[in-house]
Structures are given as C-alpha cells and as structure tokens.
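Notes from hallway chat w/ T.B., transcribed later so I don't forget. T.B. wanted the structure written out for a chain they're using in a teaching module, and asked if we could keep both sequence and structure tokens in one place. Agreed to drop them here.
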Amino acid sequence: MANFDAFSPNSRLWIYQGQRPFTAEEQAEWNPKLQAFASSWLSHQRQLKAWGGILQDYFVVLMVDEEQADASGCSIDKSVAFIKEMGQATGQDLFERMFFLYRNEEGQIEGLPSTDFAAAFAEGKIKADSPVFNNLVQTKAELESKWEIPLEESWHKNFV
C-alpha cells in the first residue's frame, strides 16, 4: 500500500463525498477496505500505484499515480462499483454532486443541497470568503491547492 505523501503531484484522483460525516465505526471498517481495493486495483492486468481513504470525515478519495500505469475505463468502472457498494453499506449517495460542503465560521464542515445554498448565502450563513470544497479537482496537486477554496473563487458561486 503506497503512502499518500509518496504520490506524484500529477497523480489522478477522484473525490466522492457523503452528505454527513462517516462515523468512526464506518471509517474503521471502510479505510482498510479502501486501502485493500487500492492495493489490488488493476488496469489491463497491470498493478496500479493507488491510494484510497476517507479524508476530513466526509470525503472518499481514490488516487492513481499514472506514471506507473494509467487507469483504464474498465479499472475506473471497478472503482465506481466499489464506491457504490460503500455508499449502499453506509446509507449515503456518494455520487450526489448537488450537495455542497463548506466550512462554517467555526471551521466545522457543514453541507446543504444546492437548492438551499443561495438562501444560506442571502441569510449570511455562507459568505463570499467561506471555504467550499471543489470536488472537481483532478490531481493531487489540485487537491492540495484548489480543493478547499473561497466561495467567490469556486464554481459554487453560480448557485448564489
């Protein structure tokens, strides 16, 4: 199992988020399963250098260093099936893209459906400088620099 820090900044990644934090019990069960999936993940019979884990209690991240081997369509399909299984087991829709997570003024992560996001902004619950999570980042470098950004710099601003 490769260590997260050992991955190239250009490593490709996929982020799935829950609408609630994963419990300590869920994390204790699913972090090892994510690591096992990543360590056995193949693309065209080639072992992928991969990592999987839950970050900040809400986010499931899969990462592949494609300098060793590219993730193919079939290998990505296998990861999607795995994430669907995880979602069903934890009672979360990990493919819901219109539920936005942000940090409140106390620094805690909160979430709202996109339909309620504008109202929260109008009420001042969310501000232009409130950090939001941009799950569209595609590389480890982007995860580290463009994942958690102010609302005013994100695509989420289109909903306020």
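Follow-up for T.B.: The longest strand covers residues 12-17. Might be a good example for the class.
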